[in-house]
Every structure is written in C-alpha cells, then in structure tokens.
From TrEMBL:
Transmembrane segments: none annotated. This is Phytocyanin domain-containing protein. PROSITE patterns: PHYTOCYANIN. Residues 1-81 form the Phytocyanin domain. Pfam families: Cu_bind_like.
C-alpha cells in the first residue's frame, strides 16, 4: 500500500454510535440490503461504539437485524472513495 493509499484508507472509517441493547449494525451486500436479510456469518457490530474500517473504495451496506428495524428503514448504504 502506498503512502497515499494509506492516507486515504484512514479516511474510510465509519464510526457508529448505537444503543447496543436496542440496535446492531450488520454489514451486508446489496441483496441483503434490499431484502433486509443477513447471512449467519455476516459481520455484526454491537458494541454501541464501533469503528468500521472500510478497507477499499466502493459501496457498503449496513442494516439493523433486530426484528422489524430494517424493514422500518433502519439501514444505510454509502459510497467510500
Ligand atoms: Cu435496530
């Protein structure tokens, strides 16, 4: 990784604050985002103060997997550059 890439990657850090007993953050693919479903091995962030490193440019999708939350709109997609 070049110095420039390293500098850019430092910017790709998603900092998330949640109330861990009420919500979580699960990284899914576009299909999982659309259908509000996550595979059993999907990475789950539930500390309530997670920092998620987005290791490369692209589109990232996150949902909350508590029942009804994603369907109620608790999901986000973002582009990392
Ligand atoms: Cu939730």
């Amino acid at each position: 990784m070049s110095r420039e890439e390293a500098a850019q990657s430092k910017l790709r850090l998603l900092q998330c604050s949640t109330i861990s007993s009420l919500h979580n953050i699960v990284m899914v693919d576009g299909n999982g985002y659309d259908k509000c479903s996550a595979s059993a091995k999907a990475k789950t962030y539930s500390s309530g103060k997670d920092k998620i490193k987005l290791s490369r440019p692209g589109r990232y999708y996150f949902i909350c997997t508590f029942p009804g939350h994603c369907d109620g709109g608790l999901k986000i997609q973002l582009n990392a550059y």
